[in-house]
Amino acid sequence: MKMMVIHDRAGKIEGLAVPGPELAGQIQMAPRKGRQVTEVDVEDLKGDVLSSENHERLLGIIERYRLSPGPGGARLVPAAKASRKGGRSRSRG
User: Fold this and answer.
1) What is the tens place of the pLDDT at every residue in 13-55?
2) For the whole model, what pTM was predicted?
3) What is the 3-state secondary structure (H, E, C) of the chain?
4) What are phi and psi of 89, to 5 degrees?
5) Cβ neighbours for 66, distance < 8 A, ≥ 6 positions apart
6) Predicted confidence band at 2 (pLDDT cuts at 50, 70, 90)?
7) How confident is the prediction for the chain on average, in pLDDT?
8) pLDDT for the residue 91
């Protein structure tokens, strides 16, 4: 299922928009300053986007993922990978 992800330059997701099939390819969004909108395909979302199961998954995407650019296009990656830039994980010895 394709969705529009609203995010900052670092990839932090702030919101999602999931157009219905009748609007696919017709939605234009104008994010506020410093934000971007990127279309991604989320394979594990199928069927009725308004179902309670899919609703929980969409909330989980906002809370636990970030957007990462890549050669084949942007993709969702776990947010934990974004925060592993040095710091607390050094071993003492």
Assistant:
1) 998 887 766 655 666 667 788 898 888 888 777 777 777 888 8
2) 0.69
3) CEEEEEEECCCEEEEEECCCHHHCCCCCCCCCCCEEEEEEECCCCCCCCCCHHHHHHHHHHHHHEEEECCCCCCEEEEHHHHCCCCCCCCCCC
4) -85, 10
5) 7, 10, 11, 12, 13, 76, 77, 78, 79, 82
6) confident
7) 77
8) 39
**Tokens representing 88?**
């607390």
Question: What tokens were used for 93?
Answer: 């010895």
Instruction: Inform me whether the pLDDT recorded for 64 exceeds 80.
Output: yes
Q: Evaluate whether 6 touches 16 at the Cβ level (below 8 Å).
A: yes
